[in-house]
Amino acid sequence: MTSVINVNLPTQSYEIAIAPASLDQIGQSLAGLKLGKKVLLVSNPTIFKHFGKVAVDSLEAAGFQVASYSLPAGERYKTLNSIQKLYDIALENRLERSSTMVALGGGVIGDMTGFAAATWLRGINVVQVPTTLLAMVDSAIGGKTGVNHPHGKNLIGAFHQPRFVLIDPQVLKTLPVREFRAGMAEVIKYGVIWDAELFNQLEQSKRLDQLRYIKPELVDAILTRSCQAKADVVGKDEKEGGLRAILNYGHTVGHAVESLTNYRLLKHGEAVGIGMVAAGQIAVNLELWQQADADRQNALIEKAGLPTKLPVGLDIEGIIEALQLDKKVKDGKVRFVLPTQIGVVTVTDEVTSDHIRQVLQQM
C-alpha cells in the first residue's frame, strides 16, 4: 500500500511517499522532479552495504551520474569535520546548483546531508531516504538540518526543505532493535502532542518494543499518522515561529541528557523518552495535566522498551545548566512543551529550576 503525504509550504512544497519495496524505484521518483544529472549519495557503511547498490543502480538506470560517500555512523560524528568531508566530495565531483544530495540513512546522515546541501553553493537539492524509524517519522521531514556543537545538540544548522522524501517500510526489517525502540519515542510523542487516536492505537498493541510483534496495519498507522502529524505542524509553521516548537516535546531535558553524556550513552530516542517522562511530571506538578494521563504515557514508553529514569550518576545541576543552551530559550527563559491532555500541549516559560530539580530528583 502506497501513501503519499503532502507537505504544503509557501516556499517549496513536496511529497512524502510511503511505499513498500520502493527503494529500487528511487531513480524513477527523482527523474520526475526535473533535477540536474549529478547526484551525491551519502550514507553510512552499514546502510550502504544493505541498500547502497540498489539505490545507486536505480539512480544510474534513470540517467543520473552518481557519486557515493559513507560517513561513520553515530551522533558523535555529527560535526563540522564531517560536513567538510562532504564539501570535499562535492567539489571533487563538481556538484552544481542543479545537483542533488541524497541522504540514505538515519537521522544523523539526514541532518548532515541536509546541512551540506543547504550550504554548498548556497543551497542545492536534497532528497531524504530515511532508513530508521526515527528518521522516517521525524528528522527526514520538515527541513531541519545541522550538526552538533561540543556544548550542545544541533546548535549549528539551517532550514532546508527536501525536494522529496521516500520511505520504504521494508528497510525497517534490518534495523537493530535498539534503533527501532528509539524511533518509537518520536511516535509516542506525536500521540501526546497531536494525535490522540494514534496514542489509543499504540495502547491497544500488546507490544511496541520490536517490529516483529507489531501488526502490519499498526506499522502503517505509525508511519502515515506520524508523518501526517509532522507535515501538518510544519505546514502551519515552517521555521518554528510558534506552533512547530511543540515537536520538541521531551527534547528539552532529552537534549541536555544527550549532551552531558557526550552522545555516547543514549540513543536520541532514549533521551527523548526520559525527557517526556520529565516533562509529563512537570506538567502534573503544575496542575496542567492529570497524573492518570502521565501514567498512560509512561506505560507506553516502557512498553516500547525505552528508559524512564536518568542515567545513574548524572549531575542534575549539570542538566539544569545545560538547559540554558537549549534552542528554545527566549529572553533567557527555558520554554517547555507540556501536555494538558492526550493530543494537546502548551508551550510555557513558567517552569522554574526548582520545578525541574524536583522532578529530576525523583528520576
Q: What labels would you give this structure?
A:
17% strand; alpha/beta; 363 residues; 11 strands; Rossmann fold; Dehydroquinate synthase-like, alpha domain
Number of domains: 2
**Broad structural category:** alpha/beta
The CATH architecture classification of the largest domain is: Up-down Bundle
CATH superfamily of the largest domain: Dehydroquinate synthase-like - alpha domain
Number of strands: 11
- Give the low-pLDDT segments: none
Neighbour order of strands in the largest sheet? 1-2-9-6-5-3-4
The helix count comes to 13
Write structural notes for this entry:
With 363 residues, the chain is an alpha/beta fold. It has 2 domains: 172 residues, Rossmann fold; 184 residues, Dehydroquinate synthase-like - alpha domain (Dehydroquinate synthase-like, alpha domain, Up-down Bundle), CATH 1.20.1090. 44% of the residues lie in helices and 17% in strands. The chain contains 13 helices and 11 strands. Strands 1-2-9-6-5-3-4 form a 7-stranded mixed sheet, sandwiched between helices. A two-stranded antiparallel ribbon has the order 7-8. Strands 10-11 form a two-stranded antiparallel sheet. α4 links the parallel β5 and β6. The longest helix has 21 residues. The chain is globular, with a radius of gyration of 20 Å. The chain starts with a strand and ends with a helix.
